[in-house]
Specification:
This protein is mainly β and 73 residues long. The chain is 0% helix and 23% strand. The termini are far apart.
């Protein structure tokens, strides 16, 4: 948290979570994706992994980024 807002593959939906609301799949008409964690220019209350905002994937900003990961298997 606090470096850049982290892009996720999750579609934005209001809480509470429901397994049938196509957050992860290709269904649905809203293509906005969730960004989490706050960025270097965020207010302190957003600097936590539970913070969520949304935007269209084609938008880029210096404070949007992603996490690189590798599976151990």
């Amino acid at each position: 948290a606090g470096n850049v807002w982290e892009w996720t593959s999750t579609r934005h939906r209001d809480e509470p979570y429901s397994a049938t609301d196509v957050r992860k799949g290709a269904g649905g008409t809203d293509s906005r994706r969730v960004l989490r964690g706050g960025a270097w220019n965020s207010s302190p209350q957003f600097l936590r992994s539970a913070s969520r905002i949304r935007n269209l994937p084609q938008f880029t900003f210096t404070f949007y980024g992603f996490r690189c990961a590798q599976s151990s298997s």
